[in-house]
Every structure is written in structure tokens, then in C-alpha cells.
């Protein structure tokens, strides 16, 4: 029976960063943990701050001039009782950013109105009709969160109307921002922060801290780090540096929340009273918060975060669960149909005008995971083809689309993810152009699983406290995948209700439990080489079965 192909031993690779650090004085960490950190580009001197992030070691944004100007603008508006309107994108990054900023303005004595882009009516970005819908004029202030950097028409109209327009965003700029527009974006040249890969929630976290300090108020760090960690984790940001520190702290703080909406969300996600991991953010909390914006409209979520009332929260949670179930069914249907359209090319581009716009990015992500290729999934909205793309590691999708922009009406995003739109008449030429562009890029090996180290169960158990500290996982900090030789099944696998199997693996005299899927793909002969990543809960180790290594 054929088992997984494409195994790659990163533990045997000779990366420059690893070799550069190898000759230096060793830390007090076990050698295997050192090697894992070095492969992730973590210098010896940064080991402790990576494994044990501390609040006092977080970066200061005080020297970022644009951020300080934005803080002064909002401080002045609050003191002068000016009307502030906040508009955000519809995803978790946008919603948590709006909730953080709105909560701060409210606490500091200001007032605000807000709106969220509707995926189906507005698409991505700040809609032009926002001026009329909210009676915006030169006596008011407009703030856009997680969008606005590339909204040229809005920027031009705000300047013409004499409206103060503040953009707080993390998407790559496609043109130069007018000097009369306030823009806080780490990718702009004026940003002195060396670490650039924040999501908007990360920037807002720093912005709100500065806003509190400007009023001489203590910053309620724990309340805001909970929302910041949710936004950062869901936006495919690099889980290293400041991002990792914020999410690390947030994972410990979210279960302590007194916000009845967030408490209810934990309960409906099956996480009440549990120690949280990054997977809980990615696959339990995040998808639920994203579901309303994906399937219908997510505006009501901000109201639940900022003005939680028991009955309103109860109805809101029921709505979230219903929309998330609809999202799951819709996503699986589109994914199965997309699989039928895949061709043996370096880039996957799938189009069906009937597909639901809200799940295209999720389907693209799954295609990347399963196929190891850049994936763009498209549908139709009104008179344009619209969709989302996801990239493979170390390939910037936004740079690729820049080369194909003559075929597009609009596009935006960052290296890992993008949104795009084009006329149907340009679809075939876009396909051909993408094929030409991708000729210069290597094709990832399908089903590639990178094995970090070979490890016995005895050593795994001894190292569990160190391995657990590698959380939170994510982009640039993947879960370490291990291989253990001479393993046998201790007893027959037990099928669970969700299609998974409960497994018990034996090596020597040690038995470890595990969870696996699609066991019919694998041949469990005697003394096989098991490939897995470890999971930890309440001091115990379990295994997530990935496959059997065939030499």
C-alpha cells in the first residue's frame, strides 16, 4: 500500500543561519531544542525571549512619527468632541481592531460611529458611499482599519472635502500615499520599526496603548492583548518576533476574560476552562468570528464585543454557530468542485461563477496545504470575477500579481494572501500571463512533509516541557514534525464520531495515544517509522499521526 511521498528532512539540511550559529557557545537548552530554534532563524541570544515572552520586552512604537500624529489627531478629536467614524474590513483582524479602537475612544470620553465592509455589496476596501451614508464632512474624522492604503478614490475625495482621514493598515502599498493623508502602515518608508509583519490588530494594539498614555491613563493591557492576539493569529502573520509575543501572552489571558461575549464564544467553541493553543485560535475561535463576514455580514460582532448584554450575546452566539455550520458545508462543496478543475501546472487557478465568495480564501488555503502550489480561487460578483489567493512559503503573491496587473481591475493584500478582481473578458489572458510568470518559480513537491528530527518516545517525553514552549505555532514557526522508528500499534484503532481514529502506539515499553485520519492510506506493518507532531495537554503528550515513512 502506498504511503506518503515527499518527506523532507529539515534536520539534515545545512541552512546558512544554522551553520552561522553552530560554532557559538551553546545555551543551557537541550541540543534538539537549540537546533529547532536555529532552523527558525532564532539567534542564540534570543532563545529566552522566544520561549518566554515578557510584557516588558515588547517593542516600543514611540519613535514612529506617523503613529504619533495619528494619536494626536484622535486625542484632539476626543477633547474637542468631534465625531469620529471608524470603518473596518470584515475579517477578524478588522473586527478586533475596530473593537479595540472603539473601546478606547469610548473609555477616554469620545464618541464614534462605525461601519464594516460588506463582502458582497462593497467588496474589500472603503466604499465610496461612506461619505453620504454617514454624512462625513470637514468637521468629522474618518478612520479606516485593515483597509484604505490602496483606496485611492477615497483618499482623493477625503482630501477634496477637507476631511481628516486616518488609515491604520498592514497591506502592501501599491502607490505613494498623499502627504495630507494620515497613514500608519509598517510597510511605508517612514516606519522605523524593524519588524514589519504585523496585522492591523498588532498596530492598533500599539496605537491604543499610546492613546491611553497621551491622556495620562493606565493602559489595560490584558483586555486589549486578548483581542490583539485573535486578530494577529487569523491574518497569516509571521508567528515570530512581536507577533508571537503578543499571541503567546494572549493565549494565557483569553481564558481569564470577563467579557460575557468572549466567555460565551469560548464555551460555544468547546474551550471553556481549557488551556488555549494556537490551533484553538486558528480552528475554533477564529473561524467562528470570521463566519458572519464570510457568509452574510459581520457588523453585529463589534456590538457584542463592546456592548455585551446577556440576551443579545445569547442570540449573537446562536447566529455565529449557524453561520459557521453553513460556512463549513459551503466550503467543503466548493473545495470538492475545485479539486476537479486542477491541472498539472505551477499555479492553481479555479473559477466557477456560482461559488460563494465568502469561502474562496479558505478553499485556496486548503489547496495550498494539499497541493503545495500557489492557489487562486475565483467566482463572480455582479459584473466582475472576484476571488482570493494564497501563496506558498517564501513566495510573495502580491509581487506576482503586480506583474500581472494589466489584466486586473483591482488587487491587494500581502505576500501570503491577496484579493483580486478582473473583467471576464480578461480571464483567459490572465491565465496565460500567470503561467508565464510562474515559469520562473520552483514548484513545491505535493504532499511534502518536512521532518524535523528523528526522536524516540523516551526523549519526546523528557523534552515535552521545552517543546510545549514552542507554541504558538504559525507562519515561520511551524509545528515540529518528528519521526520515531520501530513503532507498533498497541491495539486496533478505534473510530471516533468525527471520522478520526484513536490510536495507541508502542515503542519499547512506552505507549502514547494519538489521533489520525484516513488510515486506509497506510500500511501498519511491524516496526514501522511513525511521522507525527506532538500535542500537549495537562502535562500529557499525545501524537497527531501524519503518516508512515517509506524508505
Written account of the structure:
This protein is of the alpha/beta class. It has three domains: 7-42 and 449-548, OB fold (Dihydrolipoamide Acetyltransferase, E2P); 65-314, Alpha-Beta Complex (inorganic pyrophosphatase (n-terminal core)), CATH 3.90.1640; 341-438, Diaminopimelate Epimerase, Chain A, domain 1 (Roll). It is 39% helix and 19% strand. The chain has 19 helices and 19 strands. It has helices at residues 16-22, 31-39, 47-51, 65-79, 92-107, 130-133, 152-161, 200-214, 221-234, 241-253, 260-268, 278-295, 300-306, 310-339, 360-371, 397-403, 427-438, 457-462, 464-468, and strands spanning 7-9, 83-88, 112-116, 140-145, 164-168, 182-184, 347-351, 374-381, 384-390, 410-413, 417-423, 449-451, 453-454, 482-489, 494-495, 501-507, 510-516, 528-537, 540-548. The strands form four sheets. A five-stranded parallel beta sheet has the order 3-2-4-5-6, with helices on both faces. Strands 7-8-9-11-10 form a five-stranded mixed beta sheet, sandwiched between helices. The longest helix has 30 residues, at 310-339. The chain is globular, with a radius of gyration of 24 Å. Residues 1-6 and 12-23 have low confidence and may be disordered.
At the first level of CATH, what is the class of the largest domain?
Alpha Beta
Taking the sheet with the most strands, its summary is: 5 strands, parallel
CATH architecture of the largest domain: Alpha-Beta Complex
| Average predicted local confidence, pLDDT | 90
Termini distance? 14 Å
What's the overall geometry?
Answer: globular
CATH topology value of the largest domain: inorganic pyrophosphatase (n-terminal core)
User: Nearest-angstrom radius of gyration?
Assistant: 24 Å
Percentage of residues assigned to helices: 25-40%
Helical segment count: 19
Q: Note the beta-strand portion.
A: 15-25%
Structural class category: alpha/beta
Strand order of the largest sheet: 3-2-4-5-6
Number of strands: 19
- Estimate nothing, just give the exact number of structural domains: 3
Ranges where pLDDT stays below 50 over 5 or more residues in a row are 1-6, 12-23
Amino acid at each position: 500500500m502506498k504511503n506518503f511521498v515527499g518527506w523532507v528532512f529539515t534536520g539534515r539540511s545545512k541552512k546558512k543561519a544554522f551553520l552561522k550559529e553552530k560554532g557559538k557557545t551553546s545555551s543551557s537548552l537541550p541540543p534538539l531544542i537549540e537546533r529547532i530554534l536555529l532552523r527558525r532563524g532564532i539567534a542564540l541570544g534570543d532563545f529566552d525571549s522566544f520561549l518566554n515572552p515578557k510584557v516588558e520586552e515588547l517593542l516600543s512604537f514611540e519613535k514612529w512619527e506617523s503613529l504619533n500624529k495619528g494619536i494626536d489627531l484622535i486625542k484632539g478629536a476626543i477633547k474637542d468632541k468631534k465625531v469620529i467614524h471608524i470603518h473596518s474590513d470584515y475579517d477578524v483582524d478588522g473586527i478586533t481592531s475596530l473593537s479595540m479602537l472603539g473601546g478606547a475612544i469610548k473609555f477616554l470620553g469620545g464618541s464614534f460611529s462605525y461601519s464594516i465592509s460588506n463582502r458582497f455589496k462593497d467588496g474589500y476596501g472603503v466604499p465610496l458611499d461612506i461619505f453620504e451614508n454617514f454624512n462625513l464632512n470637514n468637521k468629522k474624522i474618518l478612520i479606516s482599519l485593515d483597509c484604505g492604503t490602496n483606496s485611492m478614490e477615497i483618499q482623493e475625495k477625503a482630501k477634496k472635502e477637507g476631511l481628516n482621514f486616518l488609515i491604520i493598515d498592514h497591506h502592501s502599498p501599491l502607490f505613494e500615499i498623499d502627504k495630507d493623508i494620515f497613514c500608519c502602515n509598517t510597510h511605508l518608508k517612514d516606519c522605523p520599526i524593524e519588524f514589519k509583519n504585523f496585522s492591523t490588530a498588532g498596530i492598533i494594539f500599539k496605537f491604543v496603548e499610546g492613546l491611553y498614555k497621551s491622556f495620562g491613563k493606565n493602559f489595560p493591557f490584558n483586555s486589549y492583548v486578548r483581542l490583539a492576539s485573535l486578530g494577529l493569529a487569523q491574518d497569516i502573520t509571521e508567528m515570530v518576533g512581536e507577533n508571537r509575543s503578543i499571541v503567546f501572552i494572549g493565549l494565557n489571558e483569553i481564558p481569564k476574560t470577563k467579557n460575557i461575549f468572549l466567555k460565551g464564544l469560548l464555551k460555544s467553541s468547546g474551550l471553556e476552562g481549557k488551556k488555549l493553543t494556537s490551533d484553538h485560535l486558528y480552528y475554533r475561535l477564529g473561524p467562528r468570528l470570521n463566519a458572519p463576514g464570510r457568509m452574510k455580514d459581520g457588523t453585529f460582532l463589534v456590538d457584542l464585543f463592546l456592548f455585551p448584554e446577556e440576551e443579545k450575546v445569547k442570540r449573537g452566539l446562536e447566529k455565529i454557530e449557524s453561520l459557521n455550520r453553513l460556512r463549513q458545508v459551503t466550503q467543503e462543496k466548493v473545495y470538492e468542485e475545485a479539486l476537479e478543475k486542477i491541472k498539472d501546472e505551477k499555479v492553481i487557478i479555479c473559477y466557477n461563477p456560482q461559488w460563494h465568495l465568502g469561502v474562496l480564501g479558505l478553499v485556496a488555503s486548503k489547496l495550498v496545504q494539499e497541493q503545495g502550489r500557489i492557489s487562486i480561487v475565483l467566482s463572480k460578483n455582479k459584473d466582475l470575477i472576484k476571488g482570493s489567493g494564497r501563496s506558498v512559503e517564501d513566495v510573495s503573491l502580491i509581487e506576482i500579481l503586480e506583474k500581472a496587473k494589466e489584466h486586473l481591475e483591482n488587487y491587494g493584500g500581502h505576500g501570503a494572501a491577496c484579493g483580486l478582481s478582473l473583467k471576464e473578458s480578461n480571464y483567459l489572458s490572465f491565465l496565460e500571463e500567470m503561467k508565464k510568470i510562474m515559469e520562473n518559480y520552483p514548484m513545491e513537491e505535493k504532499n511534502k512533509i518536512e521532518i524535523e528530527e528523528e526522536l524516540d518516545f523516551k526523549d519526546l517525553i523528557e523534552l515535552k516541557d521545552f517543546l510545549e514552549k514552542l507554541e504558538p505555532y504559525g507562519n515561520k514557526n511551524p509545528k515540529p514534525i518528528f519521526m520515531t522508528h520501530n513503532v507498533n500499534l498497541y491495539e486496533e484503532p478505534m473510530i471516533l464520531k468525527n471520522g478520526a481514529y484513536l490510536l495507541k502506539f508502542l515503542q519499547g515499553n512506552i505507549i502514547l495515544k494519538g489521533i489520525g485520519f484516513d488510515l486506509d492510506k497506510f500500511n501498519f506493518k511491524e516496526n514501522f517509522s511513525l511521522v507525527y507532531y506532538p500535542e500537549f495537554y495537562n502535562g500529557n503528550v499525545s501524537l497527531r499521526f501524519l503518516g508512515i515513512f517509506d524508505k
